[in-house]
């Protein structure tokens, strides 16, 4: 799916701003929304209104905005597009139903010409933030009736982040001519030895063109190749590679022509780079890459999970200052704007689906593993997420397939991969992702602490072993010596079992209250956080196939209420306001000394 941009043939109208808002179930969509409440878009609704009722609301909310389309555009194809609506949306224009979409982190769109009138139009959206055992993320849903018979809904999140919701990403109307470029697929096959890239470009069109022309431009705007057709191959000689932290982007300018005239034009940027997994190494452009970075969240004050481009730019600057080179979009696809920024900044991204909470019972109690026999916690009979999972893999790959920054897909975070039925659940999903990705990137899922080498059933499916481990925090709390032994022992075990698969940490961390210090290095102190990271770094450097450290978490973030959380999760190495905790100095030094390429040859 193409990102909406304005070109010589396309206009983009932004519907961001202040909308009308209300929480309720019953609304007559033929009438203006009966509310005086304001809500900014894009953003979560939760923290904007100073109201516990709105913040904690579970169920349906309504948004409405008036807009006018200039007469000059009425003969064009007009598409209403949502960057995301979390988690499910029903869209009406002038009271008429236009489109429905389920899944809170991927874009959707619909042509709206037939619904429009000249003058003011009314755009009304019903959004649900409900999650259950069929959705991703997974929620535990329940409902009851109050004394007046009103249904009270409740979602108990099966995951550790606040269930922010609403219109999180930009709402736009864009125009195209009636004959239009619908999608572009770019596969740059890089021949490193010949310093050449063979770029395959496939163009999908709507309507009809006499000819499609593809021009490849370099960063200076010089034409480096040109061809005609909807399936073309363009050779780039002396190719300029897209490298981690040293991005270079080519542009594929695609033109649809009729009677010798260009009717539609779209420009898609791409990077020429080669990603491979070989002999226990993760190679980018033929050199072993070492991941240094983070698990993150889209999470900021007041905006909640809403797009905040200033924070995106700031976060990437902070990462770069620290010598980091990568992050994982834990635990859902991030905004398209962030993905475009990462392409541009040379930040390497592990792109994750919203498949989080795929376990029936959560525990860090490793003793259940000692019981022996096959583990069956009921996850794969209780959850019915297959359909949602297939849909989101399709939508994510469709959206992000051309991004140079994306080097690997993460199919899920911490599923019950130790439990009976997990392999049968995941094998077809991995096959689907591999089939759909035109660039055939590596795939992984992020392994939960319980799923040790002895009990995990799904590691055969992955290209890279991605581990979330909390030795020294959730287990061996405060005992870094034993934690170090456990860390080393487990990593060596993985390496021995799968000598050809690279291993990385996608999470490790310790809750740390900024400003809390301890002469004894007690847990929760800034000293303990630093000691914890030093211990882990030491072990990482001993393991030849260990190819990356992405810590948990970039910044403190909001979660649901719980006795383990004080105003959210405090594992950030930055506070939620992006103030550094003490450990940032240590990690900056370490990461600035570790080269991005060729650290472990
Ligand atoms: C995990 C989860 C992450 C949590 C983290 C924690 O394993 O993947 O969502 O926030 O642990 O801090 O407990």
UniProtKB/TrEMBL annotation:
Residue span(s) of domain Glycosyl hydrolases family 2 sugar binding: 14-177
Keywords: Glycosidase, Hydrolase
Enzyme Commission designation: 3.2.1.31
Superkingdom: Bacteria
GO biological process, one term: glucuronoside catabolic process
PROSITE patterns for the chain: GLYCOSYL_HYDROL_F2_1, GLYCOSYL_HYDROL_F2_2
Glycoside hydrolase family 2 immunoglobulin-like beta-sandwich domain segment(s): 180-273
Record bears the keyword Ribonucleoprotein: no
Domain Glycoside hydrolase family 2 catalytic residue range list: 275-594
EC category: hydrolase
GO molecular function: beta-glucuronidase activity; carbohydrate binding
Family the UniProt entry places it in: Belongs to the glycosyl hydrolase 2 family.
PANTHER family in alphabetical order: BETA-GLUCURONIDASE
Name used for this protein in its record: Beta-glucuronidase
Taxonomic source organism: Neobacillus cucumis
